[in-house]
Amino acid sequence: MFYQLEHFSRPLAPRSAFLRRFSLSALAGLTLIGTSLLAGMLGYHGFEGLSWMDSFLNASMILGGMGPIWSPQTDAGKVFAGLYALYSGLAVIAVVGVVFAPVVHRFLHRFHADIADQDDSSQ
């Protein structure tokens, strides 16, 4: 990971640190989406000879989970479209994990801190 998360035994990080982590994670997610979209555009343009605008439309529709607009005509284009569709499904799951990791970490850390506070006050 490109930033350090606090250990569960440490206090909860300030809101500014959380927002910085979330921003970095969102930037990493957007970078992955942009790279995936570019790869799809290059594939459709190269294998199927689609215009850049049609390549963008097809790649973004597959990456967004809506399905293709253009049906591939060549065998290479069909193989590319299938592999790109499989990759896109996994990429979306990865992006969600990357973007929301700081949110989940903060939630779990706060939950753990609340339990530790209750244990300390009962003694």
Q: Structural class, judged by helices and strands?
A: mainly alpha
The CATH topology of the domain at 28-113 comes to Helix Hairpins
- Report, as a whole number of angstroms, the end-to-end distance: 37 Å
CATH class of the domain at 28-113: Mainly Alpha
* Major sheet description: none
The amount of beta strand, in percent, is under 5%
Following the backbone from N to C, one meets helices and strands in this order, namely HHH
Number of helices: 3
Number of strands: 0
Bulk shape: elongated
Please bin the fraction of helical residues. Answer: over 70%
Q: Secondary-structure blueprint of this entry?
A:
Blueprint: H1 15-48, H2 52-63, H3 75-121
Describe this structure in words.
It is a single chain. By secondary structure, the protein is mostly helical. The chain has a domain at 28-113: Helix Hairpins (Orthogonal Bundle). Helices cover 76% and strands 0% of the residues. It has helices at residues 15-48, 52-63, 75-121.
What's the quick description here?
This protein is an all-alpha fold. It contains three helices and no strands. It has a domain at 28-113: Helix Hairpins (Orthogonal Bundle), CATH 1.10.287.70.
List keywords for this structure.
123 residues; 3 helices; 76% helix; elongated
